[in-house]
Amino acid sequence: MKNLFKKYEGKLPLKVINDLKENMPKNISEAKLKKILEETVTEYNKMLVQPGESVGLVGAESIGEPGTQMTLNTFHFAGVAEMNVTMGLPRIIEILDGKKNISTPMTEIYLKKPYSQGKDIKRLALSIKETTLKEIVSEFVVDIAESKIEIKFDEKKMQDIGVDYPVIQKSIKANFKELALSKKGDVITLKLNEKEKELNQLFKTKEKIKEIYVQGIKGITQVLPIKKGDEFLIITAGTNLKKILELDFVNKPRTISNNVFEISSVLGIEAARQVIINEVYKVIENQGLNVDIRHLMLVADTMCATGAVKGVTRYGVVKEKSSVLARASFETPIKHIFNASLIGEVDNLNSVVENVMLNQPVPVGTGLPGLITKVKRS
Amino acid sequence: MEDNEITVFKKVESIAFSILSPTIIKKMASAKIVTPELYDKEGYPVDGGLMDSRLGVIDPGLRCKTCGSKLKECSGHFGYISLARPVMHIKFITVIYDLLRCTCRDCGRILIPQNKIQSYMGELKSIEKESSPEERRIKIKEIIKSLKTVNKCPYCKSRQQKITLEKPTTFLENEKRISPIEVRTRLEKITDDDCEIFGLDPNSIRPEWMVLTIMAIPPVTMRPSITLESGERSEDDLTHKLGDIVRINQRLFENINAGAPEIIIEDLWDLLQYHVTTFFDNNVAQLPPARHRSGDPLKTITERIKSKQGRIRHNLAGKRTNFSARTVISPDPMLSLNEVGVPKVIAMKLTVPERVNEWNIEYLKGFVETGPSNYPGANYIARPDGKRKKITDETKEQLLEEIQLGYVVERHLMDGDIAIFNRQPSLHRMSMMCHKVRVLPGKTFRINPTVAHPYNADYDGDEMNLHIPQTEEARAEAETLMMVQTQLISPRYGLSIIGAIQDAISGNYLLTKEGRYSRRDAIDLLLSAGITDFSKLSKKDVVSGKNVFSVLIPPDFNFTGKSKLGEEMIIKNGKLVEGVVDSANIGGGKGLMLRNIHKKYGETEAIKIIEAIFRLGTAVLIKRGFTIGISDADLPQEAINKINETLAKARKDVEVLTKEYHDGILQAFPGRTLKETLELKILELLNKARNETGKVVSDYSNKETHMMIMADSGARGNLLNLAQMAACVGQQAMRGKRIEKGYNERTLSCFKKGDLGPEAHGFIADGFKKGLNPREFFFASMTGRDSLMDTALRTPKSGYLYRRLANALQDLKVEYDNTVRDSSRKIVQFDYGEDRIDVSKSDGGIINVKNIIKSIK
After folding, report:
1. Would you state the CATH architecture of domain B503-624?
2. Within 10 A of A197 (CB to CB), how many other CB atoms are there?
3. A:84-113 residues touching chain B, CB 8 A cutoff
4. What is the pTM of this model?
């Protein structure tokens, strides 16, 4: 039976074969299986795209048309009531624009075995979150006379996120080398050196100290442990995939961020392509619309074809076009025409708009094949 | 197309872009323009003026002095003026700036040592080969940037001065002005090889051409003057601008010849520069735009090309067409799906050309004889040499004599002609489909109601366009590729997009659910649906509705599906054995029964069945009577009590929550403030309450009411709509939150400050039937306006996204080797969609293996 499937591997896509294997009733006779496979191949061949099919435009229509039906409501509560995620049309625009800074970056951190069952989940989550000094301090006292700053710590909070005094002292020292530092109980005292005894300086220093990074991963502003199915995972607002993947309790293959650019720099262009597909699909599905994944694949592939993520804008995909007139018909026509004239560019009229401009058949679909006949000469 | 014998068809292979050199401008010019005057006293164009008759004709009856052709035949000829002093071309100013800064001021060589030039050239060439000319441009910019700091020529060792550009068009070297003459001489010194590094093509471009010494004057056909009613002539903006240039140029000439002081010459020179600059672009940042006397800015060359209303997007990428019509649409279920009802008045204006041959000459003469004012007649005949003659009642006898083989008769539109029907916005390919014409009385286009969905049309005044393809090739293509039946499956998701709607669904639902008819009545029903073959109808005196429906189904059709409410529907050997038909089976989208019929029997059969189902459904309703009234939303007292209880409980719960909040017992969600947590919890609570009232409504409402029948069959409306009418409209939410805007700490002045109760934040406890009180109405209006705004803001955004996508992807196509490539033949995908399946031929995007396994016994 397996051999039979193998024989069809070149004739059918792998996904269909797997589908067949899954749905095949057990103890099926060889002859019947062969019949089914043959039938599938006929079906498949009927469904093949024809050469010349203008798949690009069909794809653009398929994504553009439902765009009018999508809501503009930017925010949506993604399953959990606690976190905002950009959804709807703005999110699609954001992805297809190839924006470097997206409005709600997020990471889904899957965990390795003992932790994925909920072990230490809260502590792990908090240890990822970027913590600044002010979050674990209960009181700042500025002593103007002595020109020193006393920082009183909230030890309960420190325990929650798992920080101890040496770490804090170290990070303060790293940032303010010239300060004299002393510790007494839950109070750390900082003394300014003689030269900077001005009052202004004192307050400035205090404000700076507040923002000192203590622990966690930079860029992660919010963490949220949630249960999905029968496993725990951590959702973060803000992303720093590179750093997160370095953590040892993280299930690396499954952890993913929603920032296309970050993915492409950390995991490579193929991963970025997949993220574009997944993210757009997620939004469309969420809106209760139905768009075939092939259209999204085509868009993602065009965006990633050069090896770097290019947005569907005049600076991205459109700029890469070989035809001057095609570029000019999109945006900034004057710029394109003058630049073309400088380098003596030649437009070979290989695509659609140029030929529309010249009232000629376009080289897609039925415009593609030519007909050669023998003419009888009289 | 008409005259293959005499017309030579040429195809434009490619278009090269370049800069006109002074020699070429002179060569292609047919007149030298020397005077700003346009017309003499008699109103004839002045020789050497801007409207010189050698530049083309714009007046009917005159002939072009250059080519001898008449108006509309002569496309115009260029002229030229020689400028008294050279002038910078505004569009090349940045290039000139780069060239000046990166070349030696003495010897004109590029400021790169000879040994490095080679490596740069190699790099540039490889970049252009591997990626686009655009990438190369970026690299060139980098090189130029690196040259800014070089201040000694590597060839003649002379020191370089700092050159700055004082926008828009003045160059300064050490704060001293470089005149365009000087600039030009410097540019002349640059060698061809060096030009290449700057990205200039040495074969077609010399840098000094960017400083104009003579200027091309566009033909008059490009800037026609309009004769006003008063007989006065109003000149085009370009002519005005050119007039300024010529006038100043002449004055400058005179002043130079008269030996005027340098300062006057300089001033005139600057003025000339200004006019030439605004001639090319009237929107230069540092210059005041040139204006009409009325104060409107002139529309010069750049403005003509640019933007949506410019030449490229308005006239080149989109064009107007003849042989088209537009009017209001209205529904007509008696038409076939692929027909369009065309009003007779329109049919008599639109024509189809037919060529006269031995077999149809009598047939076509018939049309000519009927003439243009009777139907079906003809409006024009065309001779083989292309000369068209209008048929009138007077000329028709004579034309009838004249007609020979090879003539073309443009006859009126008739039944069965091919037409392309379209409704804007044309968002997908189903917005433009091919229909067969049915000439009907009346003044609107008629379409089958089921085909309205792909067009997204309704009949509240929508207008649609009709186009008549004029060549055999176009007709064949429209018929095989765009006919309605070829578009049944949406390429977006691979399911049918056309299916029964509204009355057709509720009608068939009632028919198959409760229908019992006498055989006579059943036959009556079927006849009104256009069925004449009753062999499948039971011979008994009383016939079930299921049996009547089965008559429409092909005898060997087997299908098992789920109805909208989850019951099974089984069709065995073309007979509906169990279940009811509703939107889940005969509707569009996931209408699976239709999808299977389409697959098994083909598209022609499918549209026939859809039509029959539609007509049967409406016939049933006409016979039975179908209407809704306000009593459909009535609820028994018990239900009303229950709803009130639910709402009272919800109110109480909210109170409890608010109290917890005020007492500080409420636990905040992580990452949320206490207030936000409270809001979220209240929102959840109230939504739950509304859903509960909805459940009560569905439990207690009478299933026999027509409103419920419509909801259950999926024809129109749903339980939520009913619940909102009968019980409770529910919470009005904006941006995912309860309403909180308005006055300080309250939404309306009738509430206390800080009131967190349901009513104070947009909870509408009443139903539409009972009516809303003023504040509830106000909240409902708020969300109503909000969603209106949303739509208004979304449309342009999604439209722009669509335009960008279409522009980016338009040239992707599947090649003969099954790869997807763009126009420069770069591979985008090796297999389309990874499996080469065409979505519009697939089964919802996949091969349905389950069905295949089932079908093989």
Report:
1. Orthogonal Bundle (1.10)
2. 12
3. 89, 92-93, 96
4. 0.87
